[in-house]
């Protein structure tokens, strides 16, 4: 389907996350190792990052494959950041939205990506559209399931909902309306990463003093990568990771059990 990655930690060049690791997002665009749906992610890409002193992230997105963009090589080498979110896209269905359909989506201080697909789109989620202000429907960045899911999340965030609850409530609403959907959502505000594992792969790497990475799949063979169980909410910052089991929507609209703290381990030199 898609691959995505988020990082928070000490300032690094974009390339340290996107291109330098042996199995980085760049390589995953043509040779993912753990992708369950689709084979090649060539339908667009994007990266969002935060500059020091500016809470609103910048973005660079294109409609073509990441391996064909020579400008990204220079950007990844010279731009440094303390946080980023990037994604490569394997489109669920043809569309005309070009780079607007490529994650990350943005709103205020947030960057967002969706790895998965909504069954029966768009008809299956039509009942949820009534819960959004008309202005938000009319200002959707793209006409695809991911952009609509982002609108649901963003509406909750703008209403004051905490990030983990915004993702949880959105996943459960969409899963209730469209059973069988794959809803791995990834969100960052530049300081924390919030994500859901719901129907597809999710991993994290937490390294004391070196930040935290959350990704659809590991970008190297570091043995400290941890796979997140399906039906789980992840909340992480530069030092800590919390995992909270999620129940199916017919059981409850809230996370199931209490958070499970994870103690990061030092990676080998």
From TrEMBL:
Stretches of the chain forming a coiled coil according to its record: none
Report the catalytic activity: gamma-L-glutamyl-hercynylcysteine S-oxide + H2O = S-(hercyn-2-yl)-L-cysteine S-oxide + L-glutamate
Query: Which UniProt keywords are given for this protein, alphabetically ordered?
Result: Glutamine amidotransferase, Hydrolase
Q: Does the keyword Hydrolase apply?
A: yes
Could you tell me which Gene3D superfamilies the record lists for this protein?
Glutamine Phosphoribosylpyrophosphate, subunit 1, domain 1
Q: Which domain of life is it from?
A: Bacteria
CDD domains in alphabetical order: YafJ (cd01908)
Q: Under which pathway is this protein filed?
A: Amino-acid biosynthesis; ergothioneine biosynthesis
Key word ATP-binding present in the record?
Answer: no
What Enzyme Commission number(s) appear in the record?
A: 3.5.1.118
Residue ranges for the region (Disordered) are: 245-269
Pfam families xrefs: GATase_4
* Functional summary from the UniProt entry: Catalyzes the hydrolysis of the gamma-glutamyl amide bond of hercynyl-gamma-L-glutamyl-L-cysteine sulfoxide to produce hercynylcysteine sulfoxide, a step in the biosynthesis pathway of ergothioneine.
- Protein name from the UniProt record: Gamma-glutamyl-hercynylcysteine sulfoxide hydrolase
Can you name the source organism? Streptomyces heilongjiangensis
Lineage per the UniProt record: Bacteria, Bacillati, Actinomycetota, Actinomycetes, Kitasatosporales
Gene of this entry: egtC
């Amino acid at each position: 389907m898609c691959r995505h990655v988020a990082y928070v930690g000490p300032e690094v060049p974009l390339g340290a996350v996107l291109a330098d690791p042996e199995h980085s997002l760049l390589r995953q665009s043509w040779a993912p190792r753990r992708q369950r749906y689709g084979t090649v992610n060539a339908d667009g890409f994007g990266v969002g990052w935060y500059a020091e002193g500016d809470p609103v992230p910048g973005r660079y997105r294109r409609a073509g494959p990441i391996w064909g963009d020579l400008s990204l090589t220079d950007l990844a080498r010279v731009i440094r950041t303390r946080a980023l979110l990037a994604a490569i896209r394997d489109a669920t269905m043809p569309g005309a939205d070009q780079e607007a359909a490529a994650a990350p989506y943005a709103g205020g201080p947030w960057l967002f990506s969706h790895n998965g697909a909504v069954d029966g789109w768009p008809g299956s989620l039509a009942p949820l559209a009534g819960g959004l202000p008309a202005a938000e429907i009319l200002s959707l960045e793209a006409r695809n399931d991911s952009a609509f899911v982002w609108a649901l999340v963003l509406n909750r965030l703008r209403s004051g909902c905490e990030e983990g609850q915004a993702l949880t409530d959105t996943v459960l609403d969409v899963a209730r309306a469209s059973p069988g959907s794959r809803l791995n959502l990834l969100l960052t505000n530049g300081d924390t990463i919030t994500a859901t594992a719901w129907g597809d792969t999710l991993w994290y790497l937490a390294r004391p003093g070196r930040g935290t990475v959350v990704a659809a799949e590991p970008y190297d063979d570091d043995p400290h990568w941890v796979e997140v169980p399906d039906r789980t909410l992840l909340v992480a910052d530069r030092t800590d990771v919390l995992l909270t089991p999620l129940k199916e929507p017919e059981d409850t609209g809230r996370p199931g059990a209490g958070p499970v703290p994870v103690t990061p381990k030092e990676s080998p030199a």
